[in-house]
Every structure is written in C-alpha cells, then in structure tokens.
Write a structure and sequence with these properties.
Blueprint: H1 7-34, H2 39-57, H3 62-65, H4 71-90, H5 102-123, E1 133-134, E2 136-137, E3 143-144, E4 156-158, E5 167-169
Parallel strand pairs: 1-4
Antiparallel strand pairs: 2-3, 4-5
Helix pairs in contact: 1-2, 1-5, 2-4, 4-5
Length: about 170
C-alpha cells in the first residue's frame, strides 16, 4: 500500500488510465460513425477502461517501481492489458453474452491495442533530433570529426561508434 502514497505512482497510474481511455474511445468513435453505436457506449467504454487501467496499476507499474523491462516485453504487456481492458469495457451494459455486439467490441479492442502500440512506438522516438557526430581521437589526444573540425558546444557526439558507452555531450564552460 506504500505505492498509494507515492506521487510517482499516482502520476504514472493516472497517465496510463488517461492513455487507455483515449485508446479505447478512438475506435468506438469510429463505430459511432459507421456502425450506429450510441455515444453513451463510447463514454462508458472509455470510463470503464480507465477504471480497469487504474485497477491493474494497483498490481504494479514498472515505470514507477524502477523495473527496467525490455522494450518488447513492456510493449507486449501494455498492448495485452489495453486489449483486455477494452474488451471488458465493451461488455458493459450487456446482461447476457448474446447481447454483446461482438464485431464492434472485438474491432474496438483490436483498434485500442493498435493505438496503444502506436503510442508506445511514438514515445520511444528521440526527443532531440539533432545530428550525431562521430569523432576520432587524434594522436595529440584531441577529438575531431571526419572533416577535421572540433565539434561545437552542445552537440551530441559518439566517441566510439561501436559502443553506447562512448556517447558524450559537449558542455560549455
């Protein structure tokens, strides 16, 4: 229960719930236009999806607990959770399973999972699209680019292109 007192956990849980609600609402909005689905179903599916997302966050959020999962595993987990939350949200209002419009619910769930995957891909794009400059060390110990120039302050450079450890950022005085 200590996670409930953590501001980092609350921020991550609320963000996930909002992202899930948006991912669920978008396919249902398309269903409103093409399949004559009522707007109330869009709102209830998004709300239930957000509640379910928040509930699954109680079992653990890797980003707030410092767990460093491989990207593909984190993406698979997130997409599967979004699919399940959207599927469960689509069942709201049905008394029997025969009352569910399965084609709409399954399409919306697959759409929500795809939107979740797209959001994850976009979140991994670099924030700074500045060019990377590869440097070589000269015999005198100075670093220069392929044209023999010293890089400017603030540029991102790779001292050794074969290793990630070689990345440095030049700082000004």
């Amino acid at each position: 229960m200590s996670k409930l007192t953590s501001p980092a956990w609350w921020k991550a849980a609320v963000l996930r719930a909002v992202y899930t609600a948006i991912a669920i609402a978008i396919p249902y909005i398309a269903a409103v236009q093409f399949a004559d689905v009522p707007w109330l179903m869009v709102a209830s599916a998004a709300a239930v999806g957000a509640i379910l997302s928040f509930a699954t966050s109680l079992f653990g959020l890797p980003e707030s607990e410092g767990v460093d999962l491989p990207w593909w595993l984190a993406a698979l987990e997130r997409v599967a959770k979004t699919f399940g939350q959207s599927l469960a949200a689509g069942l709201t209002g049905a008394v029997l399973l025969t009352d569910v419009d399965w084609s709409v619910v399954l399409q919306a769930s697959l759409g929500a999972a795809f939107i979740s995957l797209l959001r994850l891909i976009l979140a991994t794009l670099p924030n700074n699209p500045a060019p990377v400059i590869v440097l070589a060390e000269n015999a005198d110990g100075t670093w220069r680019d392929a044209n023999g120039r010293v890089p400017e302050t603030g540029q991102m450079v790779i001292a050794d292109p074969m290793t990630v450890e070689g990345q440095i950022e030049l700082k000004g005085d």
